[in-house]
Design brief:
eight-stranded mixed sheet, Rossmann fold, two-stranded antiparallel sheet, globular, alpha/beta
Length: 236
């Protein structure tokens, strides 16, 4: 397995992603991995490695800037990092599009076969990438925020998969229904899998704060990665 950091930029903002793939002479599909609200830390990098083990190029992108990270359990700092992007979806779209461009330029990548997955805040990011009309094959939101941000959407080209905890207090049923209506009205090929008895951040083993609504669920995690594998195989 080859892994390396990759410097790229969004305007004047320097960014640092994490690239991982199995050595090959053949270009492979690219899967962007968008991090949770704590930044491109170990969890996102491990997710990119999991993607590479499936036979793709994994690219853990950077939304915040090179060397800018939050921390586990520091809700105030993490919220401050995420906040500007949640409030300004045009900024969010521009930042994640910079990652898409950087990833497509990697020599080992087939630029016509691209998908994006995201966790929590990262789920919001990949859904906004789809809403921007990006020419990619699919996006997957994993315990992501589904609410639109009020920015006008382009025609959504990507297939959309959302893996959601039914008891997630950050994504209540009315937000789920609004998302389903939005996707249906837009003519999107979409799926939403809701896991019963499951809260936010359910694929993260470090999530253990039921009062905040973040709790790891091993069964939901297993189901998530099986469904993700099926979805990537389908679109690629």
């Amino acid at each position: 397995m080859i892994n390396q950091t990759l410097d790229y930029s969004d305007g004047d903002t320097e960014l640092e992603g994490y690239l991982v793939y199995q050595e090959t002479d053949v270009q492979k599909p690219l899967v962007l991995v968008s991090h949770d609200w704590s930044g491109r830390r170990e969890f996102a990098c491990k997710a990119a490695e999991r993607v590479a083990e499936m036979g793709y190029v994994g690219f853990a992108l950077d939304m915040y800037g090179k060397g800018v990270f939050g921390a586990d359990g520091d809700t105030q700092k993490n919220a401050a990092l995420m906040g500007p992007f949640a409030e300004d979806r045009n900024l969010l779209r521009r930042r994640i599009t910079a990652a898409l461009t950087a990833g497509r330029n990697v020599p080992q990548v087939d630029p016509k076969r691209v998908a994006a997955i995201g966790y929590c805040f990262g789920g919001m990011c990949v859904l906004e990438l789809a809403r921007s009309g990006a020419d990619i094959l699919g996006v997957v939101s994993i315990h992501g925020i589904l609410a639109a941000g009020g920015t006008d959407n382009e025609a959504i080209k990507a297939k959309v998969l959302c893996l959601h905890g039914h008891d997630d207090p950050m994504v209540p049923p009315e937000q789920v229904l609004a998302f389903e209506t939005e996707m249906t009205d837009a003519g999107v090929d979409w799926q939403l899998h809701a896991y019963g008895g499951t809260m936010h951040a359910f694929t993260n083993p470090a999530a253990n704060n039921p009062d905040f609504g973040t709790v790891y669920n091993a069964i939901a995690e297993k189901r998530t990665y099986q469904t993700l594998a099926n979805f990537l195989e389908e679109i690629f």
